[in-house]
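Field log, afternoon session.

UNIT: design team B
ACTIVITY: writing a sequence onto a fixed backbone
BACKBONE:
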């Protein structure tokens, strides 16, 4: 079928590549549209935490601000877990429509900035495109913003850092929630 002088193989290869590039182009366009559409738009949010996330969604999607979410709660197995989530990164990698509609709960996982399961004592820390985790500093756990190299302190006994703000929230959905906002300065 695909001999040296046969052109049918060439056309088949070209059409396969065209389909591949076309579908890849469409998926890239959809991801751009997805990133510009606010998942919280049109939702009637009752919980303070979800309202706070909705208020920060556009700024985190646009890159004007990066937020770190600290959550402490029980997972589906009843085990207490806690962790720090890079909100801007999660917005790009997860469908927040599920969280804002109440179909799914936002919980820290092993791939987030920091994660700890209090029963199994499993812990992990991972840097993200927005933050580098600094866990061996004498002053405790720190996050370094990758865009402006400013340090964010999560210890409540310490100031949060330059261009940053700490917000403690009461939530009916979680045991403990804190949001750390870091405003990115544009030059």
């Amino acid at each position: 079928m695909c001999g040296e002088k046969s052109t049918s193989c060439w056309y088949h290869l070209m059409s396969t590549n065209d389909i591949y590039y076309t579908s890849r182009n469409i998926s890239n366009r959809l991801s751009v549209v997805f990133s510009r559409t606010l998942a919280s738009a049109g939702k009637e949010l009752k919980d303070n935490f979800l309202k706070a996330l909705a208020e920060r969604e556009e700024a985190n999607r646009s890159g004007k601000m990066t937020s770190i979410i600290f959550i402490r709660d029980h997972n589906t197995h009843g085990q207490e877990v806690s962790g720090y989530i890079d909100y801007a990164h999660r917005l790009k990698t997860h469908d927040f429509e599920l969280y804002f509609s109440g179909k799914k709960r936002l919980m820290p996982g092993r791939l987030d900035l920091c994660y700890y399961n209090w029963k199994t004592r499993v812990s992990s820390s991972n840097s993200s495109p927005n933050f580098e985790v600094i866990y061996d500093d004498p002053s405790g756990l720190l996050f370094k913003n990758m865009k402006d190299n400013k340090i964010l302190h999560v210890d409540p006994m310490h100031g949060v850092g330059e261009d940053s703000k700490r917000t403690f929230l009461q939530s009916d959905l979680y045991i403990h929630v804190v949001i750390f906002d870091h405003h990115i300065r544009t030059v």
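LOG NOTE: The beta strands are 65-74, 80-86, 114-117, 123-125, 131-134, 142-145, 151-153, 164-169, 176-183.
NEXT ACTIVITY: expression trials, pending approval
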